[in-house]
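Assess the record.
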Amino acid sequence: MSKRIDLTSEYQYRELQSRTRRHFIKQCTTGLGGIALGSLLGCGRSNPTNTQADIEAFVRKQVPHFAPSAKRIIYLHMAGAPSQLELFDYKPELAKLDGKDCPQSLLEGKKFAFIQGVPKMLGPQAEFSPRGNSGMMVSDNLPHFSTIVDDVSLIKTMHTDQFNHAPAQLLLQTGSPRLGRPSMGSWVTYGLGSENEDLPGFMVLVSGGNTPDAGKSVWGSGFLPSVYQGVQCRSEGDPVLYVSNPSGIDGNLRKQTIDAINQINEKEYKEFGDPETLTRISQYEMAYRMQTSVPEVMDIKDEPEYIHEMYGTEPGKTSFANNCLLARRLIEKGVRFVQLFDWGWDMHGVQEREALDTGLPIKCKPIDKAMTALVKDLKQRGLLDDTLVVWGGEFGRTPMQENRGGKEWPFKGRDHHTEAFPVWMAGGGVKGGFTLGETDEIGYYGIQDKVHVHDLQATILHLMGMDHEKFTYFAQGRDFRLTDVSGKVVSKVIA
């Protein structure tokens, strides 16, 4: 009870402090201009009343613009950019050019991250075969994936505006190469809400030993209320940091503490009408509920042995396989958007683990098995029809061998490439066994059915029942949307 009294006393002190003339003169005069500007721009809120009703409206499940094909998304982002020329884009003509000087026409006016001077052309470092009834060309690096190609739409001609990892990841996930915009998962959760009151609508799982180059901004909420940001979970240790009770604090005391804090927050909200106060109230309550819901859903030990074998999971460890299985469990519990990031796909060839002929096959092996298992598992449970699975990186790789510093390296790698890279999608209303787009004979340019990252974003929102041009949020004096001022739905991949 003493904690409740202390918190209440603190609130009363802050309230009295904010009403004294001395505090007003000392602290608030510089904010008068901002207050006036905010009123002119229509910011703020007048006459806040029922806090609980406002919270429910704030986080409610909303109605899509039209009937969706997909109800939920699992997005598998391979951070670092996998090489399309060793996975999905079969180029026998490139093999004939292996070791020859790169033509000047491919270098003039181009920007590369590390290529200098005149690099050598590099032929494919993998064997390809037609797979499935569709005959989709897939390399030997993905033997498991080859068994599900008839459930997949492969886009070979994605392109982007950014050739460095962080801005390219931001552009793909937030619609802008600069910090401050909401991530795709935040947009979807803002638009559609969550189907489970005890779990966040947007959850994130990371593997590969590092977070993406753009950091946690790729699952941030930007200018949207922070209740819509992604919640990062872990497959090793505590599932969510700081959700467990501190040492010496039991559940009853924790609940009393949260109630006392939220009483203060409610008074704060009624006084100032700041929507971020609603976020704090909602997140405190969610955190308390997550103490029960998260450990249950994140414990994969009770899965049947054949499921562990299917995915290649190892309970208690951090791995992409564990994260794929967790993604399935999360969407079964009603989580709207599950984002997986796997780091380590940046195959420059500067060291052996970055070599296309040795490092890439090692990297592909567990990812190939787990992502294939995810699609098959969703399908056998009847979830694939209304769950959209998306896989891809932030850009592609050059048909030339990287020559960092103007010299040849002992390992074979490729530089960053913006003009063509692959993304595949499965379930959620997309065609199966379908390939969209063609690149030129060496895989440098897209020459048919090019798809910009904003087009991909528009298509994902469309499959979720959202019109990307109407789906906006007013901030900083204007309406914003995920696709910025461009983007068109790629109707050819929709079933």
Summary: Residues 1-5, 37-48 have pLDDT under 50 and may be disordered. Residues 174 and 183 are 4 Å apart (CA to CA).
